[in-house]
């Protein structure tokens, strides 16, 4: 979910950079850094579902 939010933030930052404007003083660079933060949190596993599910592929019946 955080990766989708990061993609939206990156898209908004790109649009702001192409237009050359800012929203309430927040420019494209700030959105770039926010997108990178969201991607780092996604890679760290924060905001994702837990891996200890009963239907895990590692615990499948043989």
From TrEMBL:
**Which keywords appear in this protein's UniProt record, sorted alphabetically?**
Membrane, Transmembrane, Transmembrane helix
The yes or no answer to whether the keyword Transmembrane is present is yes
Instruction: Locate the transmembrane regions by residue number.
Output: 34-52
Q: Does the keyword Membrane apply?
A: yes
The molecule here is called Cell shape-determining protein MreD
- Native organism is Streptosporangium lutulentum
Source organism lineage?
Answer: Bacteria, Bacillati, Actinomycetota, Actinomycetes, Streptosporangiales
